[in-house]
Amino acid sequence: MSVHSSHNVQAKDCCEDASSRTITAIRTLSLKDYLCPESRPQFLSEMRDSLMEIGTFYIKDHGVPTEVTDGAMKAIQDYFALPLEEKSKMHIRNSQHFRGYKLMGEEMTNNQIDHREQLQFAPEQTVESSFVPTTSRHWEGLHGPNQWPLDILALVPEFKSSVLQFMDQLEILSQHLMEAVALSLNLEATYFRELFGSSPYYRLKCAKYPSVEKADTIGCGAHKDTGFLTVLLQDMVGGLQGQDPVTGQWLDTCPVPETFIVTMGEAIEKLTGGLYHATVHRVLNNTSGQNRYSIPFFFDPSLSSKIPHRIPALASLRRSVSSTSSMSMSMSMPMSTSASSLTSLSDEESCSEDELDHMMDALKIHHGKDDALSSQDVEGWSNGDHIFETVQRCHPEVFSRWYGREL
């Protein structure tokens, strides 16, 4: 949960509107329930409630073998235990593709220095042969290989295979989850698959939060992830918190064995007009006496994708919006719309102004009225540009070395 929002996050006062509701726990959902036709409707209902309330849930029975998760965790622990001289051989500034190691204090979140070491990976790819940093589209430079220094592989023999196998498994899980998100919105199951294409772009960030004596710093400042979906593996130390978007209440996302934490990013929040939340989250400083390790996986569409500014088909939810205190929605599945039909929807197929206001009021969403589809809405935004802007902001040392001019 650590790709940074493009704006500073102001944490709400926990007393703000605190009488309106209290979320006492983050739900745990089972992927087995989604894969079973009989239990799928209940799974989608609980997922929908979770994403409307806070934007986060735990997923169990996820199909990723224990030996894969344990192998990935051990591999990154072994890597971070290496001498700094060895770890620095794969420093991120060595990679034109924004992959590699960052030392303690080399990154900031929400204007605060992160108290963690980091290691970043992405799909193992060949370099675009036609890419020229000063003339090509910048995001084409994100295609390429990860760093695998031979000295490090000699010291941690299972490092490369464990990381690649883990990313392969999380890509499969993420495809299932994005399909479920689509169905929970009354869209076709393939809606997001068509946006993601045959080569979704994902990033794996491995982080080590060393224990300190005093909690006078922050492990990672409050922020939202910028993309679509984050799947997080954490160890049993704890420290991650998510914020209730209505009350400002901070909720501990306590480690639960054999689960991942699933969180929506700002792209989903934007696409759904705020119906689904991108969770504001932070990592408290680690005073446990032992190191904390976490491995978030950020799953996004292919870099060449154009992403609509919102999903017009959400008009199909208007009959089932409820203003109950739990903000749950009892949805039939009357209407489906694929990504390929976005440009053919007319304005009449969107929610009316009154219906949209009712939906937003019921969910305590207060955005400006923007019901009509503009030409910019239809054209959408470049996912490649969006991803590059995010990584360039987080890793300016890579940009200054390899790209040579300001965006």
UniProtKB/TrEMBL annotation:
PROSITE patterns in the record: FE2OG_OXY
UniProt GO MF annotations: metal ion binding; oxidoreductase activity
Residues covered by the Fe2OG dioxygenase domain: 200-301
Protein name: Fe2OG dioxygenase domain-containing protein
Residues in coiled coil: none
Alphabetized UniProt keyword annotations: Iron, Metal-binding, Oxidoreductase
Species for this entry: Modicella reniformis
Family, as annotated: Belongs to the iron/ascorbate-dependent oxidoreductase family.
